[in-house]
Design a protein that fits this description.
The structure holds 2 protein chains of 2 kinds.
Chain A lengths: L5 H26 L3 H27 L3 H30 L25 H8 L7
Chain B lengths: L1 H16 L2 H6 L3 H26 L2 H30 L1 H5 L1 H4 L1
The chains are: A mainly alpha, B mainly alpha.
Chain lengths: ~130, ~100
């Protein structure tokens, strides 16, 4: 590790940061309780992680034509990944999957935001998937 | 640097496998699609890293671009298909309503 040049150190920092963001996103996809919060975890951390790793590879590559191609990949990922996540969330919303805060059968009519006093909302979300059933 | 990239690619492979749990046990079909989409987008970086091991970066970056476009289009098509499957009568008259 001690024979890195300065550019290689900078590139290594970018790659480690990007993989860390992707690891956080992967844990969030598993751990979060609702589909929409999982979308929130997956799309943003993935986009930032991929951008950071590709910037690290561009620094490692130097000024060649491959750096230009990596810049095309970067622009495409920065445009396409949020659009894909948005289309998926919109499809879920159109086909009747309610967010966790606003399911009507679990709403007591008074509170808008589910607080920590009612953990039954989190429990019921595992039993009542309503996607595509409307 | 080659050793560092090898370790980074190995860690990235472990990170890619993690959303497979959500694909396996996701309660709705959208959770499964989300897990598959997350895996596909992370694979882009893995392919670009593999290019550095073989010293053929140009070819592997072309593969990366094609894979990114394929994943994006398939994700959009599957999202549209799931919406049309839930509301078959609204999918045909969607242009008139909006």
């Amino acid at each position: 590790m001690s024979d890195f040049t300065v550019l290689e150190w900078i590139s290594a920092v970018f790659i480690v940061l990007g993989i860390g963001f992707m690891l956080i996103g992967s844990i969030g996809v598993i751990r979060l309780p609702d589909f929409y919060s999982r979308t929130h975890a997956a799309s943003k951390t993935d986009t930032l992680g991929i951008l950071l790793v590709i910037v690290g590879l561009m620094i490692l590559e130097g000024f060649t034509i491959n750096m230009g191609k990596l810049a095309f990949v970067l622009i495409f990922v920065a445009l396409a990944n949020p659009i894909g996540s948005h289309a998926l969330a919109r499809a879920a919303m159109d086909s009747g999957l309610k967010p966790l805060l606003f399911r009507k059968e679990e709403w007591d009519g008074t509170s808008v935001i589910a607080d920590s006093k009612k953990p039954s909302i989190v429990k019921k979300s595992k039993q009542s998937p309503s996607g595509g059933s409307v | 640097m080659q050793t560092f990239l090898l370790v980074a690619a190995t860690v990235l492979m472990v990170v890619i496998v993690i959303p497979l749990v959500r694909v396996w046990k996701g309660p709705t079909v959208f959770d499964r699609l989300l897990g598959a989409n997350a895996m596909a987008t992370k694979t882009i970086v893995l392919i670009a890293m593999i290019g550095y091991f073989y010293d053929r970066i140009g070819m592997f970056i072309d593969i990366t671009l094609a894979y990114a476009a394929l994943g994006f289009i398939s994700s959009l098509a599957l999202a549209k298909y799931m919406t049309a499957e839930a509301h078959p009568e609204e999918a045909q008259t969607e242009e008139k309503d909006e």
